[in-house]
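USER:
Try writing one entry.

ASSISTANT:
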Amino acid sequence: MTLKKLVWWFFSTLLLGGILGIVLGGTISLITDIHLGNVTKLLLTGTMFASVAVLGFFSYLIFNWLGAGFVRNALLFQVIQVLLILLVLGSLTYLFVSKFVGKDLYLHLLVPLLIAVIAWIVARVKVKWTQPTAFIPALFFMIAATTLEAIPSIKPKGGEVPLAHLFYTVLTLLSCNAWQILNLHRWIKKRPSIQTVPAETKKNEEQEKGKVENKTEQTDKVINSPKKKGKKKKKKKK
């Protein structure tokens, strides 16, 4: 990843978070009649969530690098990620079940369901854009990273966060994380170096020379074979 792409990754995610903060805050205020703040506050809040998503994504890249180094078997590493996904979703569901009852419980259970559904959609898109092996890592990042990043809103130290604020936080984080994971292959894409071009041309030239030599050998065999047969026949006549 070049410095230019690194700067674009950071500031584009911040810009996305700021825009989503204003749009989602205004939409939630219109639907639920809960005022989340003025435009400046929503912009700063969305930017803050975007910066948290950037740090979470950077931590995921380090985790993926270390995990792939310790667990050399790719299949085993994917199994570990699936187990961690189930653990995170199970812990989040248990947290809401033990904390809320009745109608509030069903409304709060929409949060892990929303995370799982959006993560599944993003992982499927990632597979279409890259390769099938990217499904589980993308699903793991969308679920585990988003849940950990939203912990201060899900389980605050003092009091309870309203459900509208919780959805606001989760949707902003999901959008920023989806933007990062879907564009990762573009940001780390390597350009073909200048040194590789002559090597490829040399290989092509050698292959063409080999084909020409094979053709000449075949033509020589075809030309020389009738002469030998003719000589054999003359010997038989004598």
In short: The first helix runs from residue 3 to 32. Residues 193-197, 228-238 have pLDDT under 50 and may be disordered. Residues 6 and 187 are 8 Å apart (CA to CA). DSSP finds nine helices and no strands in the chain.
